[in-house]
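does this look right to u?? flavin-adenine dinucleotide version
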Amino acid sequence: MNFTETDEQQALRAAVAELGREYGYAYYTRQARQGGRLTELWQEAGKLGFLGVNLPAEYGGGGAGLYELAIVLEELATAGCGLLMMVVSPAICGTIIARYGTQEQQRTWLPLLASGAAILAFGITEPDAGDDAAAGEAANMAKYAAAEASVRTVDQAIQALGGSSMTQEFGLAAMLANVRTTRIAPVSREMILNFVAQHSLGLPKSY
Ligand SMILES: Cc1cc2nc3c(=O)[nH]c(=O)nc-3n(C[C@H](O)[C@H](O)[C@H](O)COP(=O)(O)OP(=O)(O)OC[C@H]3O[C@@H](n4cnc5c(N)ncnc54)[C@H](O)[C@@H]3O)c2cc1C
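got this back:
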């Protein structure tokens, strides 16, 4: 796999980082404390084409891929104002509709997802989940590693800064709950390990 980003990808990073700086962690925490949402940031990111960067150009998207969408999410998260619903709306729902939706579904939903005007969630049942063990293994390991990295990073930052890390000004205590959630949702760490044990290592189902 090539980890060198193209000029376009680097330019996208820089543009998203600039937007992230305009909002930042102060905006994120202010909205959270007031019970608000990140609507202004969501709408501006949509207007700038960042939310739909992975969606087909013929439906108002950027015509790029999930890597580019990950760049958007990474840069906003780095700025302290990650948009979690990007994972659900343009990434999961958008990709599935673009790949498997009817033309009518694509015409109806993709422009709205690309502009950010609609936010989609989904309800699924997975009676045959686990068939694609190779993809499942990679996805589960990536999810596991990302959760562990985020939990340990915040914990280490708190340890390094000591008592002051718990103040509102440092903002780290508020991150604790966020990162800790990644070990539970959308799938618990234990269920990830169960999947890998059963499907990759061929061990008997343990639960
Ligand atoms: C912020 C947040 C947002 C969420 N959003 C959504 C959403 O949009 N849609 C949705 O459907 N769900 C959502 N969830 C639910 C989420 O998918 C579940 O919390 C998650 O799958 C864990 O299931 P659970 O909470 O029932 O915990 P449980 O399954 O009860 O697990 C509790 C603990 O028990 C242990 N455990 C459980 N099973 C096993 C096992 N087989 N082997 C070993 N140990 C085990 C683990 O330590 C685990 O952490 C959300 C959860 C959170 C926290």
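The two ends are 36 Å apart (CA to CA). idk if thats expected tbh
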